[in-house]
Design goal:
8-stranded mixed beta sheet; 285 residues; alpha/beta; 8 strands; 6 helices
């Protein structure tokens, strides 16, 4: 296994940005401080009219939920954030999914250790919060959200998951953890890395254990995820004989779907979003 080399390297230049008077008030309300200034000209804003959208309490978890108003027996998508937590971008992804007919739930998975939305320095987010988050806690929290959805308008037979960056890795892991997952879409999640008591396994370790079909979307110019890892994962998935597969955008950097950041690449992002929709439909979500 490789030594620690987080797939957040391409974000580090933003670590010294100032607060610029920005205040986070609730899940999905505004962008995390560490990503300021936001690329307002490309950031997508999905209206909530016709949707039931906003923060909900799921046990001890806070989560952002969006679904069509009055919808019942809806296919459910768990949405897993980057290291910045459930800020405006993740909430908007939930609303986009809700407009497609899904019940989308994005839990704040870092709350036990802090609020990354309120920190201005990415290195501090990594050391003070992310370094304390254990995979076993995350799997249990996502299980809790899946169970909540079952009793709040979701169809447990049509469960999917998608995640970005840190959440992309979690997408792979959860598809190997929960047999109820029909499909997942992992956006540039790390494939291999350091093994310890918090992160004992990586997607490459569980390629033959995936319960649902996972589509991995990666950038050929991602400085944090080596193409060697992508190729190794492709080989492992082929050997497993399952439905999961990878797609690489040769000229895209890390975080190419993040429409609020300079890393956004519209063509790759829109193509990936189209692939997500087809993938979920083809695989029972």
């Amino acid at each position: 296994m490789k030594t620690a080399n987080p797939d957040f390297d391409s974000l580090l230049p933003a670590a010294n940005l100032t607060r610029r008077g920005f205040v986070v008030t609730a899940l999905g309300a505004g962008f995390a401080l560490a990503v300021q200034p936001v690329m307002a000209q490309t950031a997508i804003k999905t209206e909530s009219s016709g949707l039931q959208a906003g923060e909900v309490k799921i046990g001890e978890l806070a989560a952002y939920r969006a679904q069509p108003e009055g919808g019942k027996n809806l296919p459910t998508i768990l949405v897993v954030s980057e290291i910045f937590g459930v800020h405006e971008y993740i909430a908007d992804v939930c609303r986009r999914l809700a407009r497609l007919g899904y019940l989308a739930i994005a839990p704040e998975l870092f709350a036990r250790h802090g609020d990354p939305r309120k920190l201005t320095n990415i290195q501090e987010i990594l050391s003070a919060i992310i370094a304390k988050v254990a995979d076993r806690e995350v799997m249990a929290d996502l299980d809790t959200c899946a169970n909540w959805a079952k009793n709040n308008g979701g169809d447990p037979a049509r469960l999917g998951i998608t995640g970005f960056c840190w959440g992309g890795r979690i997408t792979w892991l959860y598809a190997g953890h929960n047999p109820a997952v029909k499909a997942g879409v992992a956006w540039y999640g790390r494939i291999d890395g350091e093994m310890n008591d918090r992160t004992p396994r990586w997607p490459l370790d569980i390629a033959d254990e995936l319960k649902g079909a996972v589509l991995g979307l990666y950038g050929g110019k991602d400085q944090g995820i080596p193409l060697d890892d992508v190729e190794a994962m492709q080989a492992a998935l082929a050997k497993s004989g399952g439905k999961s597969q990878l797609h690489v955008y040769p000229d895209a950097p890390h975080a190419f779907h993040a429409d609020y950041r300079p890393t956004y690449r519209r063509e790759a992002a829109e193509d990936g979003w189209g692939r997500l929709q087809v993938w979920f439909k083809q695989n029972g979500v």
